[in-house]
Amino acid sequence: MNTFNPFLAIKQKRPKFELDWVERTFAAGNTFRAFKGRKADKIRRVVRSTIVRARNLARARSQLQYDSALNSYTKTIEKKARLQFGYASKLANLYIKELVSRPGILPDRWAASIRRYAHVPIDQHILGYMRVHFDGDAAIQAVPKGVPLKKIKREQAADLQKMLRAPARRASVNPIDYDLWWSADISRKQGRRSERRKHR
């Protein structure tokens, strides 16, 4: 009779298993297609080893402190993974979003603190929504349409994050919640594909 209890193993190794889960799920496979010649697994490990449980972000007591800690993480990812800022920033923010989205990985107080200041992962989908929702704002107007993510500048990204904060506060939600528009975009595309299949 097999006496191995897999749940005891989970109990003993839970912190490692949870970070393994975050590492493998924080970004979809198509996110890594742009990184020609570099393996996704290696980049995932760089992001994880840099941020781990985001202790420095959890300690932030202001947006300025959070941004400073995040900038340090992003620069490390840029250097170790040899990525441009736009890519490194997106991956860092995707990892952080995943880290705070699954209950229990971080202490509740840490997760709440990080969510308060967390940045929206910027990609072409989110930029597209920003152009619709904030078309009159100087921050989005300063980003040329169709600009590749690798050419997004640090200052442009900072201005876009700042642009989201006031409307988020008025709605009593966290700025990172704007990323839910990405899932709305995916749902709409899936819906259109389903409709096309019906009419074949």
The whole-angstrom Rg is: 18 Å
Helix and strand element order: HHHHHHHHHH
In whole angstroms, the N-to-C terminal distance is 54 Å
> How would you characterize the largest beta sheet?
none
Stretches with pLDDT under 50, minimum 5 residues: none
Count of individual domains: 1
How would you describe this structure to a colleague?
Helix 1 crosses helix 2. The chain has helices spanning 6-25, 40-51, 55-58, 63-81, 85-101, 108-117, 124-133, 138-141, 154-170, 180-198. The longest helix has 20 residues, at 6-25. The chain has 200 residues and is an all-alpha fold. It starts with 5 loop residues before the first helix and ends with a helix. It has one domain. The chain has 10 helices and no strands. The chain is globular and about 70 Å long.
Topology, element by element:
Elements: H1 6-25, H2 40-51, H3 55-58, H4 63-81, H5 85-101, H6 108-117, H7 124-133, H8 138-141, H9 154-170, H10 180-198
Helix pairs in contact: 1-2, 2-4, 4-5, 5-6
